Every structure is written in C-alpha cells, then in structure tokens.
Amino acid sequence: MKTCETPMIEIRNLHKRFGQNEVLRGIDLTVCPGEVVVIIGPSGSGKSTALRCINRLEEITSGKVIVDGHDLYDPATDINYVRTEAGMVFQQFNLFPHMCVLDNVTLGPIRVRRTPRAEADRLGLALLEKVGLADKATAYPDQLSGGQKQRVAIARSLAMQPKVLLFDEPTSALDPELVGEVLEVMRALALEGMTMVIVTHEMGFAREVADRVIFIDQGRIQEEGPPDEFFGAPKNPRLREFLGRVRHA
Amino acid sequence: MALDFKASVMWESVPLLLGGVHLTIIITLGGLAIGFLLGTATGLAKTARGKLPRALADIYVEAIRGTPLIVQVMFLYFGVPLATGMRIPPVTAGIIAIAVNSGAYIAEIVRGAVESIDVGQTEAGRSIGLTRMQTMLHVVWPQAFRRMIPPLGNQFIISLKDTSLLVVIGVGELTRQGQEIIAVNFRAFEVWLTVAVMYLVMTLSIARVLRIYERKLNARFGR
Q: What is the reported pTM?
C-alpha cells in the first residue's frame, strides 16, 4: 500500500452492498497528491462503484472515504463543498443539453462559487481553449461529436478547480477514432500534476500515463503496482487471465 | 320536421355568448395558474425523499382523480359552506375547483417529466457542487419542463372544457350563457352550434400557442 504525508484520497475498508449483492468487499486505497492511478478490472468488478464513492455518488455500507482531509460519509461534512474538490467525468458525458458549451462550463463557478459572469466566462473560455474547443463555446452539446463532448465535460470539471479528477470510463462511449483526442487532454492534465483516478479499458494509456495501476475483481483490489511491473509481470492469476483476454480482444 | 336553420340566430347570439367566453377564459386562466403551482409542488413532492410529502401528494392526487369533477364542484359550493359557514362566490368556487382538479393531473405530468430526465444529469450537477435544489432548478427542471409542454397542453384543453360543468353552480360562463339564450329563443341547434364553435376556437388557440412556444424552446436547445 502506498503512503504519503498528506494523502489526497484515503479509502479504508470500503464495503458496498446493493441488496444481497456485495459489490465492494473491503477496498483500501491511498492516492497521493499529483498521482495518477488507473483502475482496471472486468465489468461488474466494482471498479466504477468504488470510483463513484470518492464523490459520494453512492451511499456506502461501511468504511471510510476521506478526500483532502474531509470524511465524505460523515454527516457533518458539507458534501456540496467536498464535491467541488473532486471533479467527475462520466462515461456518458452528462453535459447539460439545454445550455451552450460555455454555460455548461460556467454553471458551477457562477452558481456554486458565485463568480461574476464576466469572470466565469473568461475562465470558461480559457478552459475550452485548453481542451481545444474555444471555437465551440456557443455550440450546444447536440452539435458536438462524442470526443468533443467529453472534452467539454473535462473543462466543466476543471472549472471548479478541483484537487482531484475522477474519470469513469471516459472513452468507453466513444467511436474509436475519437478516443485519442480525449486521452490527449487527460495526458496533458497528468503532466501538469493533476491528481487523477481513472477507470478505463485503455491499457496502452494506463501503461503510459499511470503512476500506479490497480486491478479490482470481485469487489477487492487483487493487485497493484507501477505499470511496468503490473503489465510486465502480473502475479495474480485472475489479472493474468484478464490481461490475456483484453489483449486478444 | 325539417330544421328551420337560421344563421342570423347564430350571429345574434354572439355578443351575449362573448360575455360567457370572457368568464370561461378568466376561470380557465386563474384555475390553471394556481393548478400549475399546485401541480408542480405536488409533483415535486412525489419525487421527494421524505415519506410524508410523498404520502400527502398521493392522497391529494388519488382523491381528485378518483372522483368526478362535478361532485367536487358541488361539494365545494354547496357542501363546504355548511361546514364553514362561509359562502364562496360562484366564480371563486369555479377557479378553486379547476385549480384543485387540474393540479392533481398536472402533478402526475410534472412527476413523470422530472423522473424521465436521466439520473446522469443530476449526478453531473451534484458532482460540480450544486445543491439538490440548484440541480433541480438549473439542470433538471428546464429539461423536464420542455417535456411537460405537450401533456400540459392536453390538460389545459381539458380544464377549459371542464369549466362548462360550472353551470351546476350557476357561473355565467359560456355554456351557461348558451342555456340562458336558448331559454328565451328556443333555438337549441344554432346556439349550441355557436357555443361549440367558440369552445373549439379557444382550444385550438391553446394548442397553437403551445406549439409555437415549444418550437421556441427547442430552438434554444440548438435543435
């Protein structure tokens, strides 16, 4: 297990049950500031659920999730505030279809941070520039390609100046030729030192960008390590089997 | 006996009937304005987390949907004053009846539309730090409202026609005016035909206005 002086994310003995189905059976994970952690695993393994717990999009059965010192499941915690510190990028983008691209990005700053509109617009345009979509500011989500939508979604998350970005299979809903442009933006964020936790099936990206790769299966972390070790010499037989299947897919 | 149709009777009845149209419109607009607020509050209560608001909303909706409007109207106008000792003027009673009645149906429209919005929208709103209320206001409601327009239009048309039931409490709306004219001239065919055409003009206007409004909203979505 990783240790650092002030972890950005600390998950301790996290259990999550949907009815009879125990999806998470004791997850322990520490993410340090600036670290890029990639989570892989078969579908239904609980990896997305684990990620969603870091933003309290799921209620948990037991355990602790601490983000930047805030205990997420403590009733005394201001969850709306903590959520601004951990941005979430969804598989289905979840852009707001009734707002233009710029308004999607500035909604958070204006409504949550009470940033004046002019300033929020400046920030929003700068972020759209960063993801290569400044020319789409007045377009509506329906007029964008999947890759463009996901880049807007990333800009929307960044607008809250979060300390962590969580990605839930950000490229899984994209046509293959659009995956690259999204990974490009994520790579740039990693290089800037953004703390990121990414659930993905993009093994090449994981190998290249991750500081640490984690394999979740049957609700538990089965193996973790730096990508070279993780992909080069996987110890866990289930991981070996999983990697074999993914490579031959 | 063949009908001795006189078009002139229709024209002559128009000015008197327009007085009824006026009252029909006032009751419809007043009733629907209050009904919309009532329906929105009830519909949102139905999507609430708390059990109490949900239960109260359910009781209201079921009680109204499960009883005839004409019974509701007579209960309100003839029954309630006996209990409270306060008479309600007929037009006020009419507006209240239409409001309470349409509110129950609008509640279902609101609940359906709000629940039809993908949960990912709420999650996206909450994940940028919006409160539950802000997410509803800025993210879910504008999208749900657009979906409500066609069924709301339906309800508006139904409520407008329902005002004709207010004849039973003597409100001088369009149907009542028709009755009164016929009581004098006995021209049932011409007068009821005129009354029907006037209702039709009003209901078609509602449909028209809402379609234009819907198109305007859609344009704002960039579609």
A: 0.90
- Min Cα separation A110/chain B (Å): 10
Cross-sheet strand order for the sheet of A70-71 = A21-31, A9-18, A62-67, A70-71
* pLDDT, tens only, B172-220: 999 999 999 999 999 999 999 999 999 999 999 999 999 999 898 887 6
For residue B143, give the chain A residue with the closest CA.
A98
Given strand A86-89, what is the order of strands in its sheet?
A86-89, A164-168, A195-199, A36-40, A212-217, A220-225
Q: Which residues contact A166 (CB under 8 A, 6 or more apart)?
A: A51, A54, A55, A86, A87, A88, A89, A196, A197, A198
Q: Do B124 and A95 touch (CB under 8 A)?
A: yes
CB contact under 8 A, A92 and B120: yes
The residue type at A241: E
Residue of B nearest to A140 (CA): B222
At B1 the pLDDT is 61
pLDDT recorded at residue B69 = 96
Q: How far apart are CA A41 and CA A128, in angstroms?
A: 32
Closest approach of chain B CAs to the CA of A222, in angstroms? 29
Please name the member of B142, B143, B221 whose beta carbon is closest to the beta carbon of A142. Answer: B221
CA-based nearest distance B156→chain A, Å: 25
Q: Please, what are the averages of pLDDT over each run of 10 residues along chain A (249 residues)?
A: 82 94 94 96 92 95 94 93 94 96 97 96 97 96 96 98 96 94 96 96 93 95 94 93 81
Nearest CA in chain A to B121: A94
What ipTM does the predicted assembly reach? 0.93
The length of chain A in residues reads 249
pLDDT category, B131, cuts 50, 70, 90? Answer: very high
Q: Which residues contact A84 (CB under 8 A, 6 or more apart)?
A: A108, A112, A113, A160, A162, B128, B129
Q: Inform me whether the C-beta atom of residue B221 falls under 8 Å from chain A C-beta atoms.
A: yes
Can you give the pLDDT at residue A220? 94
Kindly determine whether residue B127 and residue A83, on different chains, have CB atoms separated by under 8 Å.
yes
Single-letter amino acid code for the residue at A23: V
Dist. CA B89–CA B77, nearest whole Å: 8
